[in-house]
Sequence to fold (177 residues):
Amino acid sequence: MENIEGRMSFQVVDMTDNPTPAFDEVLEYWHQKRGDAFAPAWLEIQLIDLPAKLLPKCIVVDFDGAAGPIRYRYYGTAIADLHGYELTNRTIQDMQPPDFRDLVITQYRMVQEKRIPMFFIAHFPFLTGRRTYQYLLRLPLSNDGKTVTNVLSVQDISDQSKLLSKYYSQMDNGSDA
Fold:
């Protein structure tokens, strides 16, 4: 489990242990589009084909090589509302705070390196000792059939959105939740 300064951590979950049924349709769609390839191309993905309730919870990023910048092509409205900022057409370097950004970069680079779909559970500690979770599905996309050039992500935040929004807001202000 990755952990930064006791604030937030994440763990990778085996694909067979799908933590949320909300991901089933997206994963099935991704498999259908990829055919025999390790991943479908971005051009084969039509976000409008995904369940409407999930579109606001989707993110698509573009990679500029293995170590280049990560640019947000699509940043769903529910994610923007949760984080308190919009990142479409901006790079991940614009994400705040830096320690949170570094965890997100780690997840994207894992998908890019492994070239497989990955489930993540993000753990958020709270002052009361409670933890809340955010479930993420990150799916590789490949425009050249060899490397991961994009990642399609879906987040399941439905039952914890108010708590997480407060937590992100306080992270942005540099205070603990």
Summary: The chain has one domain: 2-172. The two ends are 21 Å apart (CA to CA).
